[in-house]
Design goal:
The protein is of the alpha/beta class and 383 residues long. The chain has eight helices and 18 strands. Strands 1, 2, 8, 9, 10, 11, 17 and 18 form an eight-stranded mixed beta sheet that branches. Strands 5-6-4-13-14-15-12-16 form an eight-stranded mixed beta sheet. A two-stranded antiparallel sheet has the order 3-7. The protein starts with a strand and ends in a 29-residue tail after the last helix. The C terminus is likely disordered. The structure holds flavin-adenine dinucleotide. Flavin-adenine dinucleotide binds next to α1, β3, β12, β16 and α8.
Length: 383
């Protein structure tokens, strides 16, 4: 057994663990990252749709995303690395029923400094062709777009290493012991680490990792599929376009069209085989809004599946655990962990180094909400 010491052990080298490791190392913490798989971004991160948006309906998500978008955008200037942030935009197609709420969301987004526009159907259809049946309006986020999950994760890990962190791949954490003084012993095979804080950034496995420490963290895997056209099937490029009436979304990636949407009856659990039956149903759903899609040739070889890391309310879990203040969760961000990874990592480091999070009101992300009664549970955040 190889016994070592660290201030913080970060479990997981996806986008969130990598960002946390960087911010912790930059704050002077001795950090060790333990990752079960062969390299960075090998879990959900590397299978992401990689779309990023500040267009949320609540202040917390607007801030988490908008701060993160700016962090991705500033990477080349701050660190000399391009992490693939491209402001290709995000077009939201919103139903009549949700349109008033969407206009209030636009006001809120603007109050937070996010550029967002309300577009006429004609202007929006010039960006992505669609049928306006049943729609109340459309909004456009010109700073929203895409990032490269592999580049961003690797860049954060490099920064962490430059700050003195150690990153160990092929180190699956298999036991965690708590000590009376709040410290932990984390074991991965023959490596044993004594540390003051553990950061649980294990994505969809965060629940299993917490169980090793006797803690209950309600995170499960839920499969999501990405379907792809043949290369060259589109004449031009399309930005991320989301039909809020059905949950169907699409965008182009290089020469391909990509599209997806959650299967409502998807059963929880880890699986990454592509759901071909759902592709047919989803295409029928998508064709109602984007009739031209039926003529797009598909390519099974370009499709993939991965898992969201879901919580019961589909929002992340961030911060320490009341009964174990030196255990810090940074997990369960469902389908928006990539776009918020920079800020999740920054706030995780703040929790570790100061014992709290003052930089943003993250009450709605605290694990305590799951123990709350229905009456005092935070309001469910919209979309
Ligand atoms: C198809 C799809 C589309 C998506 N689209 C988007 C999108 O457009 N925008 C967006 O923001 N998000 C999107 N997401 C979600 C996003 O990918 C995740 O929220 C994000 O990547 C989570 O990052 P993470 O670091 O928490 O998890 P992960 O990347 O899963 O990293 C967790 C790591 O922990 C490691 N680990 C687990 N158990 C252990 C252990 N016992 N010991 C050591 N290591 C362990 C795993 O191997 C893994 O590498 C999408 C996800 C999928 C699958």
């Amino acid at each position: 057994m190889e016994l070592q010491a660290a201030d913080v052990v970060v479990i997981g080298a996806g986008a969130i663990g990598a960002s946390a490791a960087h911010h912790l190392a930059a704050a002077g913490q001795r950090v060790v990252v333990l990752e079960a798989l062969d390299g960075p971004a090998a879990g959900s991160t590397g299978r992401s749709f990689a779309s990023i948006r500040g267009q949320w309906a609540d202040e917390l998500n607007i801030e988490m995303s908008w701060r993160s978008i700016r962090a991705f955008r500033e990477f080349p200037q701050r660190y000399g690395v391009d992490v693939g942030y491209r402001p290709s935009g995000y077009l939201l197609l919103v139903s009549h029923q949700l349109w008033d709420a969407q206009l209030r969301a636009v006001e809120l987004q603007r109050e937070h400094g996010l550029p967002v526009e309300v577009l006429s159907f004609e202007a929006a259809q010039a960006i992505t062709p669609f049928s306006a049946d049943g729609l109340g309006g459309t909004t456009w986020g010109p700073a929203d777009g895409v990032v490269d999950p592999h580049l961003a994760t690797s860049a954060y890990l490099d920064l962490a290493r430059n700050g003195g962190a150690t990153v160990r791949f092929r180190h699956r954490v298999d036991s965690i012991a708590a000590h009376g003084d709040g410290s932990w012993t984390v074991t991965a095979g023959t490596t044993e680490l004594r540390c003051q804080h553990v950061v649980n950034a294990a994505g969809g496995w965060a629940g299993e990792v917490a169980t090793l420490a006797g803690l209950d963290v309600p995170v499960v895997h839920s499969r999501r599929n990405v379907y792809a056209s043949a290369a060259g099937a589109l004449a031009g490029s399309l930005p991320m376009t989301v039909d809020f009436t059905s949950g169907f979304y699409l965008r182009s990636e290089g020469p391909r069209l990509l599209f997806g949407g959650a299967r409502p009856d998807e059963v929880d659990g880890y699986r990454t085989d592509v759901d071909w039956a759902w592709m047919e149903e989803l295409l029928a759903l998508g064709a109602r809004r984007f009739p031209w899609i039926v003529d797009v040739p598909l390519d099974r070889a370009g499709c993939w599946a991965g898992t969201y890391e879901n919580t019961p309310d589909h929002h992340g879990i961030l911060g320490s655990v009341p009964d174990a203040p030196t255990w810090v969760n940074a997990c369960g961000f469902s389908g928006h962990g990539m776009m918020q990874a920079p800020e999740i990592g920054r706030l995780t480091a703040e929790q570790v180094t100061t014992g709290g999070i003052a930089g943003l009101d993250v009450t709605a992300l605290r694990i305590e909400r799951f123990a709350a009664t229905a009456a005092n549970r935070p309001v469910e955040l919209v979309f």
